[in-house]
Design brief:
With 165 residues, this protein is an alpha+beta fold. The protein has 4 helices and 8 strands, in the order ββααβββαβαββ.
């Protein structure tokens, strides 16, 4: 279920080489990402990988919370998934699952596109529920598009973007 009363786009084109594609129920491409202990650590703060059943549960849950997308890059003339992001006003969990694409500012481009999506929906604020203290790359990503820390959490910080009126 995407955002109540809002039709989720099938694709959000971010550039010629990057897009978001609406989750279609098939999560098999994501299982290897959630077997990467470093990626899981950045996301969960733990090094316990996800079983295929846990990946399926997570995607079903996120698909009920907001707009769930695969992050896709253009390679050899075709788009392929390299991560995922879920968008709703109260949170924006993002994962660059394919380690070869981390550190290339793709996350920044995705977050900026979703801020624009939020503005188009009339949002004057958006939140990121928690970024772990040790995940400095994620924090810099969100700060680069205008998110600011608003509250410390036991393990990190909650961040908020607000429209400048």
């Amino acid at each position: 279920m995407p955002i109540a009363g809002v039709e989720q786009p099938s694709v959000i084109q971010i550039g010629d080489d990057l897009r978001l594609r609406k989750f279609d129920g098939n999560f098999s491409c994501a299982i290897p990402w959630y077997q990467d202990t470093e990626m899981v650590y950045l996301m969960d703060g733990k090094r316990k990988t996800y079983s295929p059943e846990e990946v399926e549960w997570m995607y079903r849950y996120l698909d009920q919370k907001g707009e769930l997308y695969f992050i896709e890059v253009l390679e050899d003339g075709a788009f392929r998934p390299i991560g995922d992001v879920t968008f709703w006003q109260e949170d924006m969990p993002i994962v660059i699952g394919d380690a070869a694409f981390r550190g290339r500012h793709l996350g920044r481009r995705v977050v900026q596109a979703l801020v624009e999506r939020g503005k188009s929906l009339g949002y004057t604020w958006m939140m990121v529920n928690e970024i772990y203290h040790f995940n400095t790359a994620s924090r810099r990503c969100f700060e680069s598009v205008g998110f600011r820390p608003v509250e410390e959490t036991p393990d990190g910080v909650q961040m908020r973007w607000e429209e400048c009126l």
